[in-house]
Design brief:
Rossmann fold, 2 domains, four-stranded parallel sheet, globular
Length: 223
C-alpha cells in the first residue's frame, strides 16, 4: 500500500511513519519546516494551508491512503475533511518523552516554568504508539465517519503529570496543582471519550495511562 502521511515530522506523524515503514508500506511524509528523523520514507515539504499544493502533491504521489496528522486545531478551513473519510477524535497524546505534556511536567518539576497542572481538567490520555496503530488500522479499513480513539483511563492533567513524574524518576510532590474552573482557559473541563465502538473494530488495544506509564520509559523518544 502506498500511504501519504501529512504532518509526518511531529510526534504522532513520526510514529505513523515508523510503523508504516516497518510494516513494509511505501511511505511519503510531509513536513512544514524540516523533515522528520524517521528513515525509510520520502520526505516532502508541504504547507497544508495551500490547497493547490495539497491537491498537486496527492495527484503526483497517487496514494492509496492519506493520513492527516498535521495539527491546526483552530483552522477549520484547513482541517475540514471529506465526509467519506475516517475522522478520529483523540485526547492528550503521550510518548516515551517528547510530548507537550511530558515536557511541561519536566519543566514544572525542575522549576523551569510557571504554571500548574489542573485537578479538574479531565481527559483520556493515549500513547502515541497505540494511536498510530489504530489510525493505520482504520486507514486500511472500509470505515468512514467519526471515531473515538483515546486511552481507557479518564484522569486529570494533575494525575497524569504525577504518573509521568514517577515513570521518569522525578518527585511528584514538586508538581504544582490548581483548578481550571474560574479561569479564562477556554473549552470544556471534562472530556471523556467513549471508545468502545471503535475498539470493537480494532486489533490494537488502546491502553490507559495507568498501564502505559507504569514502566520506566525507554531510552529514546518515539518522535
Amino acid at each position: 500500500m502506498r500511504i501519504l502521511i501529512v504532518g509526518g515530522s511531529g510526534l504522532l506523524g513520526g510514529e505513523l511513519v515508523r510503523q508504516a515503514t516497518t510494516a513494509g508500506q511505501i511511505v511519503a511524509a510531509t513536513y512544514l519546516t524540516r523533515p522528520g528523523a524517521v528513515p525509510g520514507a520520502e520526505w516532502l515539504p508541504l504547507d497544508v494551508r495551500d490547497r493547490k499544493a495539497v491537491f498537486g502533491l496527492i495527484g503526483a504521489i497517487g496514494p492509496d491512503v492519506v493520513v492527516n496528522a498535521a495539527f491546526r486545531q483552530p483552522d477549520w478551513e484547513t482541517t475540514a475533511v471529506d465526509p467519506r473519510a475516517v475522522i478520529v477524535r483523540t485526547s492528550l497524546i503521550i510518548g516515551d518523552g517528547g510530548s507537550a505534556h511530558e515536557d511541561m511536567v519536566h519543566a514544572l518539576a525542575a522549576g523551569d516554568t510557571d504554571g500548574v497542572l489542573f485537578t479538574d481538567d479531565v481527559r483520556c490520555p493515549v500513547h502515541v504508539s497505540d494511536l498510530a496503530a489504530a489510525l493505520l488500522e482504520l486507514a486500511g479499513s472500509d470505515r468512514a465517519g467519526t471515531h473515538h480513539a483515546a486511552g481507557a483511563d479518564a484522569m486529570s492533567r494533575y494525575e497524569l503529570g504525577r504518573l509521568i513524574a514517577r515513570r521518569d524518576g522525578l518527585d511528584p510532590s514538586r508538581l504544582p496543582s490548581g483548578r481550571r474552573a474560574g479561569t479564562d482557559v477556554p473549552g470544556p473541563l471534562d472530556v471523556r471519550l467513549d471508545c468502545r465502538l471503535t475498539q470493537r473494530h480494532l486489533t490494537t488495544r488502546l491502553r490507559g495511562a495507568r498501564e502505559f506509564l507504569r514502566q520506566p520509559r525507554s531510552n529514546g523518544s518515539l518522535s
